[in-house]
Amino acid sequence: MASGATIGFGLASALGWGAGDFFGGIAAKRGPAILVVLFSQVLGLTVTLTVAMLSAEPFPPLGNLAWDVAAGASGVIGLLLLYKGLASGHMGVVAPITGVTAAAVPTIVGLILAGLPGPLVLAGFVLALVGIVMVSRPEGTFRLREVSLAATSGFLLGGFLVLVGLDGIDALWWPLAATRVANVGFMTVLALAVRPSAATFGQWWRPALAAGALDIVGNGFFILASQAGRLDLAAILSSLYPASTMVLAAFVLKERLARVQWLGAALILVAIPLMARG
Questions:
Q1: Distance CA 30, CA 25 (A)
Q2: Tens digits of per-residue pLDDT, 110-141?
Q3: Rounded CA gap, 51 and 174, in Å?
């Protein structure tokens, strides 16, 4: 049985990440995704590093923090691809595919480390596969760019979920700060290489600010969830975040999804807790 803390923290993480992705997608529609991610991660680094230094948490061993740095590198690339996907297509299509892929990665890692999954996990995989096919056909057209961005993003974000759970640190703020160091470093190098224009900064900084704050919330609750119970369960529950992204896109942006897409998204969202219960 899963602990109540793991379930509560995991679902809170999903709410934070889902709302953060919505605002990140809004910002990326108005400005360069590279600068949007960099801006939000600089905010995250400033907040988490300040709180970590002011807190009573002891500084962890560098070897343990290396897992968080690796997690940050994987996560920020996944986040960049996710924002590009959210900006270029329907949020209600990109978000579910990313979520189920991110949930599948820690599940597969668990399969390799712990053996074959139970029947509920297998049923979850089947439902997820069917759901991805259904949700990926907007208006009867298969949009390869949206699907490929979402799937690649999900794979990298799933890698973040696995790596951040391997640090063995009983702390919150130092692991969060370590991931942000990698995020900011990678995005700074990328921004210097690409040199995107910041001319539209006034149009996107507010949603990017909201995305960065909500990303901290999501990451913090995920770390708490992984410390309270099983890593794979925490990862899968937190991967329910597409639900809040889809709801916000439907009600705020008035995105219209076909009935088959809603059904496909529902199958995906059913598949994730099935894998968790397995």
A1: 9
A2: 777 766 667 877 787 778 767 766 765 555 55
A3: 9
Identify which of 227, 213, 215, 164 has the alpha carbon closest to the alpha carbon of residue 9.
227
Domain ranges, residue 38: 4-277
DSSP secondary structure string for all residues of 61-105? PHHHHHHHHHHHHHHHHHHHHHHHHHHHS-HHHHHHHHHHHHHHH
Question: For the chain, what percent of residues have pLDDT higher than 70?
Answer: 88
Considering its fold, how many domains does the chain have in total?
Answer: 1
- DSSP letter for 50, please: H
| pTM of the predicted structure, to 2 decimals | 0.78
List the Cα angle 72/239/130 in 5-degree steps.
125
Whole-number Cα distances in Å, 161 to 26, 94, 141, 166, 174: 24, 19, 32, 9, 16
Over residues 1-26, the pLDDT tens digits come to 445 787 789 889 989 998 998 998 89
Spatial CB neighbours of 126, under 8 Å, sequence gap ≥ 6: none
**Angle of the 33-54 helix axis to the 201-228 helix axis, nearest 10:** 50
The answer to whether 120 and 277 are in contact (CB under 8 A) is yes
Write the DSSP symbol of residue 136. Answer: T
Cα–Cα distances in angstroms (integers) from residue 113 to residues 13, 107, 108, 116, 232, in the given order: 25, 10, 9, 9, 11
Residue from 266, 276, 277, 278 nearest 130 by CA: 266
